[in-house]
Design brief:
Elements: H1 3-25, H2 29-55
Length: 57
């Protein structure tokens, strides 16, 4: 997993969590769902890259 891909995955997680929490505070459920989806996409991207790296060894 390259540093750039790791940073992108972590950034998606952080932005998604921030959007989700801010949307919940403002009672915007649609935006909260989009934030949760972004956070999950970041987690899956990180897991995919980590799995890809484990097979290269």
């Amino acid at each position: 997993m390259s540093a750039g891909e790791r940073a992108r995955a972590k950034a998606e997680q952080i932005v998604g969590k921030t959007v989700r929490k801010a949307a919940h505070a403002a009672h915007k459920e649609t935006l909260a769902a989009k934030g949760a989806a972004l956070e999950t996409r970041g987690k899956m991207r990180g897991a995919k890259e980590q799995a890809r790296g484990s097979f290269k060894r």
